[in-house]
């Protein structure tokens, strides 16, 4: 499980529009130094993993972008729709929020996930990037739209923004109860299309990636969904739901990151 270096998955859409100015990657759990249930590239400071190993894993992610650990910006993710703007004065703060944007070269924006949807955003023309953590609460609350608006405030143009949803739990792995569905239908009855009946009475299978992708497209940006389900692939991805079903005491987190490269 411990490769020498992490090798992230890339989005063809983001890569095609990067103009070699912006680098990104959806990192798997491969390529880290953690052990046991955290084996591999666990970057979760909130996990019970050895902090020294977590920091080394995060350093490896930063190094992929040619930056030291201190230039990796993450937030204390609280399943909100809140976005923070990072600039050259960044000094390691981790405010309570679920997305980050910047126009400053050399800062690596990272969001953590273990089933929730990591979204990376890029406007290569205007040099603005973003990263968002979209669980069901964030997706419902508008984290994707808020990230786009924060990028526009930094000089991005909506028509120039591309976004990619990385590895996240897919509909086939995401069973929910009736009260969960009610939350969504109370917000918008059209959200019914993202739920199909499961084999369990009064339960449904929820398509979070489809909801997230639709909201991105509706917001007027180009969007791609990698279509990778974190739940069944224990070799490559941590999964909160898989850990819960297995009765394990804790779980690791993978990271998705993006940076404007320094000249």
Descriptive labels:
263 residues; alpha+beta; CNF1/YfiH-like putative cysteine hydrolases; six-stranded mixed sheet; four-stranded mixed sheet; 7 helices; globular
Written account of the structure:
This protein is α+β, with helices and mostly antiparallel strands and 263 residues long. It has a single domain (12-170, 207-260), classed as CNF1/YfiH-like putative cysteine hydrolases, CATH 3.60.140. Helix content is 24%, strand content 22%. The chain is built from seven helices and 13 strands. The model has no long low-confidence stretch (mean pLDDT 97).
Which structural class is indicated by helix and strand composition? alpha+beta
Going across the major beta sheet, what is the strand order? 3-4-7-6-8-12
pLDDT < 50 stretches: none
**Architecture, according to CATH?**
4-Layer Sandwich
Q: Biggest sheet: strands, sense, closure?
A: 6 strands, mixed
The fold-level CATH name is CNF1/YfiH-like putative cysteine hydrolases
How many distinct folded domains? 1
- CATH homologous superfamily classification: CNF1/YfiH-like putative cysteine hydrolases
The CATH class designation is: Alpha Beta
How much strand content do the residues show? Answer: 15-25%
Q: Give the oligomeric state.
A: single chain
Number of separate helices: 7
Outline = globular
Mean pLDDT metric: 97
């Amino acid at each position: 499980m411990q490769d020498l270096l992490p090798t992230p998955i890339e989005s063809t859409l983001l890569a095609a529009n990067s103009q070699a100015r912006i680098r990104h990657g959806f990192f798997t759990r491969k390529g880290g130094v953690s052990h046991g249930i955290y084996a591999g590239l666990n970057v979760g400071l909130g996990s019970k993993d050895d902090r020294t190993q977590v920091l080394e894993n995060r350093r490896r992610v930063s190094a992929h972008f040619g930056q030291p650990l201190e230039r990796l910006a993450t937030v204390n993710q609280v399943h909100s729709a809140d976005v923070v703007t990072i600039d050259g004065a960044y000094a390691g703060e981790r405010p309570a929020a679920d997305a980050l944007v910047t126009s400053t070269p050399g800062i690596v924006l990272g969001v953590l996930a273990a089933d929730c949807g990591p979204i990376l955003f890029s406007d290569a023309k205007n040099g603005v990037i973003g990263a968002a953590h979209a669980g069901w609460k964030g997706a419902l609350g508008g984290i994707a739209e808020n990230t786009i608006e924060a990028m526009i405030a930094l000089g991005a143009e909506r028509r120039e923004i591309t976004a990619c949803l990385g590895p996240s739990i897919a509909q086939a792995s995401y069973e929910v109860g009736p009260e969960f569905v009610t939350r969504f239908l109370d917000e918008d009855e059209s959200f019914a299309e993202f739920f199909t009946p499961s084999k369990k009475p009064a339960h449904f299978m929820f398509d979070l990636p489809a909801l997230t992708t639709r909201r991105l497209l509706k917001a007027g940006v180009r969007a791609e969904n990698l279509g990778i389900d974190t739940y069944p692939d224990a070799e490559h991805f941590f999964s909160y739901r898989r850990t819960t079903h297995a009765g394990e005491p804790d779980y690791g987190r993978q990271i998705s990151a993006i940076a404007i490269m320094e000249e």
